[in-house]
Write a structure and sequence with these properties.
The structure holds two protein chains of two kinds. Chain A is an all-alpha fold. Chain A has one domain: ACP-like (Non-ribosomal Peptide Synthetase Peptidyl Carrier Protein, Chain A). Helix content of chain A is 51%, strand content 0%. The longest helix of chain A has 16 residues. Chain A starts with 7 loop residues before the first helix and ends with a helix. By secondary structure, chain B is α+β, with helices and mostly antiparallel strands. Chain B has one domain: Peroxisomal Thiolase, Chain A, domain 1 (3-Layer(aba) Sandwich). Chain B contains eight helices and eight strands. Chain B is globular and about 55 Å long. Classes of the chains: A mainly alpha, B alpha+beta. The interface between A and B is small, with 12 and 10 residues.
Chain lengths: 94, 246
């Protein structure tokens, strides 16, 4: 344990981010789940946000409303994304 | 009549990425196996590099050393076929009724590579992206001459072609392997080693020249290496006559 513990879903989403956004030389276990994805953290930008939303929708068969005012919050870290995906999957399955 | 000096040049093809390798190829040209290799472009930070396609890496790889850190120079980006692998991937998604990747879609224009050059090098001046026929190279030189005539101190010209997507290969005969050639072109020489070339266009009545074994830009690269006295390219009604004065 190195303090960077991820849930399985967090690890899966981190790997999806790495693969989708073509992040060279980044290992999923090295990305803290609570690190900001955009701006100063991992350094993603707005095009990445669109790309990531598309990848999440494909992978988890969920819907992400593009005008959702909560999107910024959901996309802030891997932890918040995992919580969002979990909630959406429960909703869509219901 | 176009009158230019070629001050520096760089070229890349799979397995050929040094001056010596190109010199050898120029003496004994042969087709190259293209297995999707691409220049590393380590001079671009990883976060920017991840958005560079193969064609962009080829272009930046050859153009990068020809422009000084402090210089602002116009760019002519020329590619007859552009990024057909990207186009084909997007079209495939459309046929499959899949949403398009925003990144791929955003970069699916002919001047995308010129735009990336501008951003990564902080180049705020003009750039031109052209696609012509088999004589796209000569048209790129015409663009460069026009920019020089308007007062540019030098022009960076890049010809880049990528091996097309498999589905298009039966129709594309002038890209034996992926290649990129960059030339630094000026109206007056600032280096003693600059080669002085003139380009003239005459009307050709013959058939399209199928004897031109290599793409025009690579033929010209051979002429640069071998310091040939002249070179001719014929395409449809256009006869391009190159003559070296120095």
């Amino acid at each position: 344990m190195n303090g960077l513990t991820h849930t399985p879903l967090e690890l899966e989403i981190t790997q999806l981010i790495i693969d989708t956004l073509n992040l060279e030389d980044v290992a999923a276990v090295d990305v803290p789940a609570g690190q900001p994805l955009f701006g100063s953290g991992l350094g993603l930008d707005s095009v990445d946000a669109l790309e990531l939303a598309l990848a999440l929708q494909k992978r988890y068969a969920i819907r992400i409303a593009s005008d959702s005012k909560d999107a910024r919050q959901h996309f802030s870290t891997v932890t918040s994304l995992a919580a969002f995906v979990d909630a959406q999957r429960t909703l869509c399955a219901a | 009549m176009i009158d230019v000096y070629i001050e520096q040049w760089r070229a890349w093809a799979p397995g050929l990425d040094s001056e010596d390798a190109w010199h050898d190829w120029s003496n004994a040209p042969q087709s190259l196996a293209d297995n999707g290799e691409q220049p590393g472009c380590d001079f671009v930070a990883a976060m920017q590099r991840r958005r560079l396609s193969r064609l962009a890496r080829m272009t930046l790889g050859v153009a990068w050393p020809l422009c000084g850190e402090q210089e602002q120079l116009p760019l002519v980006f020329a590619s007859r076929h552009g990024e057909s692998p990207r186009t084909y991937a997007l079209l495939t998604d459309l046929v499959d009724e899949q949403p398009l990747s925003p990144t791929q879609f955003g970069l699916s224009v002919h001047n995308a590579v010129a735009g990336q050059w501008s951003m990564l090098r902080g180049q705020r001046g003009e750039s031109v992206a052209i696609a012509g026929e088999a004589d796209t190279f000569e048209h790129a030189m015409l663009e460069a001459a026009a920019l020089l005539a308007e007062g540019a101190p030098a022009v960076i010209v890049v010809i880049a072609e990528e091996r097309p997507a498999e589905a298009y290969q039966p129709w594309i005969h002038d890209v034996p392997f992926s290649y990129a050639v960059a030339l630094r072109v000026t109206a007056t020489p600032s280096t003693p080693t600059a080669q002085h070339w003139q380009l003239r266009l005459a009307r050709s009545t013959g058939e399209a020249d199928s004897s031109s074994a290599w793409p025009h830009a690579l033929n010209f690269l051979r002429a640069l290496h071998q310091r040939s006295a002249s070179l001719q390219h014929r395409w449809k009604t256009r006869q391009w006559i190159w003559q070296r004065l120095r």
